[in-house]
Amino acid sequence: MSDVKELIKQRGHIKARVTLFEKYLKPLLECKEISLVQVNELRLRLSKIRDLSCTFDDIQSQIEMLDEDTSKQMQEREFNENIFFRLSAEAQSLIDFFENKNKLESSSNKSRPDCHLKLPPIKITPFNGEANKWLSFRDTYVSLVHNNETIDDVNRFHYLKTYLEGPASAVINSVSVSSDNYSLAWKLLCERYDYKRLLINEHIKCLFSIESLTKESHSGLRNLIDTLSKNLNALHILGEPTDKWDTLIIFLASAKLDSVTSRKWEEYRSNKNAPTLDDFYDFLRKRSMVLETMNANKPSKVDKRLSFSNTKSFLSSSIESPSPSAQCLLCKQNHKLYECNTFKSLPVSNRINKLKLLNQSFKIQEQSDNNSKNLPTLSPAATVATDSEVPSSSASVSMTAISTNQSLLSTALVKVTSNGKTCILRALLDCGSQSSFVTVRALRETGSQHFDSDYHSVSGIGSSVFNVTKHCYLDIGSLNSPLVMRVKCFVLPHITDRLPNVAVNVQHLDIPCHVQLADPKFFEPSDIDLLLGADVFWDLLESSRINLGPQGPILQETKLGWIVAGPTNIHSNNKNRSDGIARVADVFTSKGVVRRAVHNLCSLENSRDVTRTPKDFEGGEDVGANYQECKRLI
After folding, report:
1. Does residue 435 sit in the same domain as residue 526?
2. First-to-last CA distance in the chain?
3. Whether residues 497 and 602 fall in one domain
4. Of 297, 319, 353, which residue constitutes the final position of a domain?
5. Are residue 206 and residue 286 in the same domain, yes or no?
6. What Pfam families has UniProt attached to this entry (predicted)?
7. How far is Cα 529 from Cα 499, in angstroms, rounded to an integer?
8. Do 433 and 522 have their domain in common?
């Protein structure tokens, strides 16, 4: 009896293993496709199940011999054998289906006529014989063409000739295109360029020939990463131990960084005992993303204060102050000649002839106290142009500075500490300046020490040049944060006029209450003591930015607080316009210069597009003695 129990126990173990196989097989039967690995595993499991079936048959036969209840044991045999046969059949069917499917696909590919083969659009960068590009070309060509079984040798040869240029193409030019010659052509090419020592030298030369970055650039940093990784990977394939070169490569590459990025890297690596090349790559990628984001957030419009493009700028030809007693010389109506519609409708040449008939001269004679000089008379040929395009020099910009809009430049209040004394200075943030500057007055106020500099020439607007011989170092801090930075500033007598040039009404600006402005009175004209240039400008910027509406200024977060910059769309009043003209007149200190300016204005009268100055010009007393001269000449 004990023998029967032992046999039944063994039979139970076999049935449990069959149940596990059934659970494994069920999801495979429900799958639409199975992999080769799964088929091989199924084949092994099926073999085990067949062995278990034989073992079950032996054990069941022994039980039937010892047990008197024969009918019960026969039912047990029938039930378990049905399970064995069903599972074996399902597994074998799945294996057969997979094998038949592969045979059909293989036969389909082989039965395709070679003569009707359509070459696939394989695109590979042509190889021109540069050794440092050989490995990349070779590996790509081998994977896409050389090892492609669907392409015969003749078509491989055609592909190879297509992808070779210059010296590389000359290597196989003497080999005729045929199926037998393809192997020869490929062998010749490999023998010519698979020269390990030459390849190693070329890739090392590329590492040492990386160009230095002169300024912060996200594209430059990415090119640096690509160059390093490409050449190091090639050297690794050639058997060089590049995994042990981290310190050398970091030293070599960090020397190519611009000054700002180099300083950031030194700060980054100070937190790590021995930075790896992966750490260096990670730093460069993050820095590149920061610079790209900042570049995308920069305003698309240029800074109007420094914008002097060759756009069409039409100067005013007159200052209109109509008099009721004025009478047109042409139509005898109550207006000036230049207001006469009849006169303006005439062609330019006819206007000149009409003026000659009226004894009007276009000749303006420049007089001075010591000499006299005749300015050339305007000839008809000089007045044919339809649009007088004037380059926007400093003088012409001043003449057209009667703007109806105000553009705010970014200003900030900073604190400067020197010898225990703290002063508050007003700074202009200007990324268009290569250096930072401070005024002599502000330097005296801070009590900071200045030093003699090598002779420097600072170029400004209109090719104006200033000589700088002094510099100082200022510890500049923020009023809104614990920031303190040391800045080298060159010393100038004067940086710029008061900014903004007129008070700006900011009641319409919806500035959020949580914003801490770097210059709370940015809208009031005030002196500029300090100019922070590009050497520190980008280090001050933060990522946040708020747009104050269409055609309006923006709020940009910086380490000094939020700065306001951009157009305000606020119309200036007539008094401001008059002040603008008065300031222009102050520039011309002699009658000769005034006459020359007016002569230029009259020259542009022949242009079809003329922008006139306001009619209600007042403030002649501000112009001084030149006012009547301007009025008479115009």
Report:
1. yes
2. 136
3. no
4. 297
5. yes
6. DUF1759
7. 11
8. yes
**280 and 208 part of one domain:** yes
The answer to whether residues 169 and 206 belong to one domain is no
* CB-based burial label for 227 (10 Å; 0-12, 13-18, 19+): middle
Same domain assignment for residues 419 and 496 = yes
DSSP helix/strand/coil, 554: strand
CATH number at residue 447: 2.40.70.10
pTM for the whole thing?
A: 0.32
Pairing of strands 484-492, 436-439: parallel
CA-to-CA separations, 379 to 292, 382, 384, 595, in angstroms, rounded: 54, 5, 9, 18
Provide φ and ψ at 25, rounded to 5°.
-75, -30
User: 279 in a domain, yes or no?
Assistant: yes
Divide the 634 residues of the chain into consecutive groups of 10 and give the mean pLDDT of each group: 78 88 86 82 86 86 80 84 87 84 64 50 79 83 85 86 86 83 87 79 85 87 89 85 88 89 85 84 89 74 43 37 58 79 81 69 40 41 37 36 64 86 89 88 86 74 73 88 86 87 81 86 90 89 84 88 82 44 38 42 42 43 48 47
Q: What is the pLDDT of residue 1?
A: 56
Return the H-helix or E-strand segment holding 222: helix 218-237
Q: Identify the H or E element spanning 283.
A: helix 277-297
CATH of residue 72's domain is 1.20.58
Closest CA to 427 of 446, 443, 440, 410: 410
Q: Spell out the residues 6+ positions from residue 630 whose beta carbon is closer than 8 angstroms to its own.
A: 319, 585, 594, 598, 623
Q: Does any domain span residue 568?
A: no
Q: Which of 437, 591, 430, 569 has its CA nearest to residue 508?
A: 569
Cα separation, 297 vs 278, whole angstroms = 29
> Is there a single domain that holds both residue 430 and residue 531?
yes
Kindly report the three-state secondary structure assignment for every residue of 89-150. Answer: HHHHHHHHHHHHHHHHHHHHHHCCCHHHCCCCCCCCCCECCCHHHHHHHHHHHHHHHHCCCC
| Residue 154 maps to a domain | yes
What does DSSP say about strands 530-532 and 421-429: parallel, antiparallel, or unpaired?
Answer: parallel
Of 192, 208, 235, which closes a domain?
192
| Distances from the Cα of 333 to the Cα of 55, 232, 321, 323, 362, angstroms | 129, 86, 16, 12, 23
| CA atoms of 314 and 308, how far apart (whole Å) | 14
C-alpha distances in Å from residue 555, one per residue of 296, 547, 567: 16, 6, 12
Residue 182 covered by a domain: yes
Which residue from 202, 131, 126 is spatially nearest to 159, judged by alpha carbons?
Answer: 126
Q: Give residue 166's domain range.
A: 131-192
- DSSP per residue, 294-330: HHHHS-SS--GGG-------PPP-------TT---TT
3-class SS string, 416-467: EEECCEEEEEEEEECCCCCCEEEEHHHHHHHCCCEEEEEEEEEECHHHCEEE
Gap between the Cα atoms of 32 and 310, Å rounded:
69
Distance CA 538, CA 263 (A): 13
Q: Is there a contact between 128 and 168 (Cβ–Cβ < 8 Å)?
A: yes
- Count the domains in the chain: 5
CA distance 201 to 565: 53
**Amino acid symbol at 519:** D
Tokens of 143: 């994977």
